[in-house]
Specification:
By secondary structure, the protein is α/β, with parallel strands linked by helices. It has 7 helices and 10 strands.
């Protein structure tokens, strides 16, 4: 949905956040493989969380109370600004950037903050896709921050999947929900060129496997 009216851009984030709080607040939730995250936090490792665009809503809600502040990369588009403003209402810091507009500067800024103790967040397939194809910026950010990539997915017993490029998921009230953590993958500083692509493919595979697990989750 394109929001071009400035007034709507002001009103939509608080309204969306209120709806998300109301809907997700009545959904019984659980966490799968929470030990993977807890181990990284205990080791004080920089973490870069990544998920597919279509499952972003519940993840923003879930991450509203975290032991570390989260800094996110959002698209500089109007839609990206909307997502960013919603994310800020759940406690995130947001920087705008894309492949064609300020993306490298934003990645460097976020990487620096992650080295200072923040966790990072980035949408794996970006703001425009292609669907479930991991963007190279995910691996570049992890490399520059010295971070471990932790894939995240969502399982919901009752939901509506929209006919959009990202197959955006609307979780229904009172649905059982599970947040799934995948297996973490550290990205070394020498990951460039062919090696960088190998890491990109590996994270894409892990995230797609985790997504499939969520779609068939045995509630």
């Amino acid at each position: 949905m394109k929001i071009r009216n400035p007034r709507l851009l002001q009103l939509a984030p608080p309204l969306a956040a209120a709806v998300m709080n109301r809907v997700f607040g009545c959904c019984p939730g659980s966490i799968v493989n929470e030990a993977a995250e807890k181990k990284l936090l205990a080791l004080d490792r920089p973490i870069l969380y990544t998920c597919w665009h279509g499952q972003l809503a519940y993840i923003l809600y879930h991450f509203r109370f975290r032991p570390r502040k989260i800094v996110l990369l959002a698209s500089p588009s109007i839609d990206g600004e909307l997502i960013g403003r919603i994310a800020e209402r759940f406690g995130a810091l947001v920087f705008a950037g894309s492949r064609n507009k300020g993306g490298l500067a934003a990645l460097r800024k976020i990487a620096g903050m992650m080295r200072q103790g923040y966790c990072g967040g980035i949408i794996a397939d970006g703001s425009r896709g292609p669907y479930h194809q991991l963007q190279k910026g995910v691996v570049v950010l992890a490399r520059e921050a010295g971070a471990v990539i932790l894939p995240v997915a969502v399982a919901a017993a009752r939901k509506i999947t929209l006919n959009t490029w990202d197959r955006f998921e609307l979780i229904l009230p009172f649905s059982r929900v599970a947040l799934l953590f995948g297996e973490p993958l550290p990205v070394p500083p020498e990951a460039r060129g062919k090696l960088l692509e190998e890491y990109r493919q590996e994270i894409e595979t892990r995230l797609n496997d985790l997504f499939t697990l969520g779609q068939n989750f045995p509630f």
